[in-house]
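S1.2 Input.
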Amino acid sequence: MSSDLNKYELRGNAVVLALFFVVVHLAYFKTWQAGFVTDFTGLQERLDGAPFRDFLHCFGFPALHQVTNFFLYLFYKLFDTNPLPWYLIYTSLHVVNGWLGYRLAKKVFEAASSAQTDKLAVNISIPAFATALLFLLSPYNAEAVIWKVCFNFLFCTAMMLSSLLFLVKYLEKEKNIDLLWFNLFFVIALFTFELALAVPVMAVAFAYWWPSRESRFRSWEL
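S1.3 Output.
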C-alpha cells in the first residue's frame, strides 16, 4: 500500500512539474533573448579577466553573495552571452520554485485540514496547485526570470523553500537529519541573497503553529 501511494505521489508530482514547465515557457518564451542590459553589463565588466577565486570577494561587489557570484561566473564562462542556456536555466529555476511552492502549500493545507474537527471535502492538491500557479504567473516575478542579474532571487527562493520543506519534515517526524538539511539550505540561501533572513521568522511561525502532537514545539505557549 505504501509503495502504491509513493508511486501515485511521484506520478502526481511529475504531472504538476510538467504542467508548470509548459505554463512558464508559454509565458516567457518570447523573452528568451532579453535581460542582458544595464546591471548585467556592469557585472560583465567585473567578470572579464577576473580569476575564479574572486567569487569569494564577490568580484568587488560589497555584499555577501558568494553563492550568487559563483554561479554567475560559471554561467558567463560557459555560455558568455548566448541567450538560450541563460533563458533555460532561469525558467527552469522558476519552474522548480513553483513546484517547491506547490509542495509546501500542500503540506500547509494538509496540516490545517488535519487540525479541523470538521474536515473539508476538498482535494488539497487543488488549492496548492492554484497557489503555485499564481506564483508562476505573477508579474512581480517577471523581472527575476528575464533580467540576467536576478539569479539571486530565483536561487535564493529555491533554497528558502527547500529549507522550509525540510523544516516541515522535521516537525512531522522529528528526525535530526531533516533539521540538518533545513540549516544547510538556509546557509546556502544566506550567501545567495539577503532575502534568506526571512527564513528564521518563517521557521518560528511554522514551528509554533504546526498542529503535530508529536512535535516538541507544541509545548510552546505565548
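S1.4 Remarks. The chain is about 70% helix and 0% strand.
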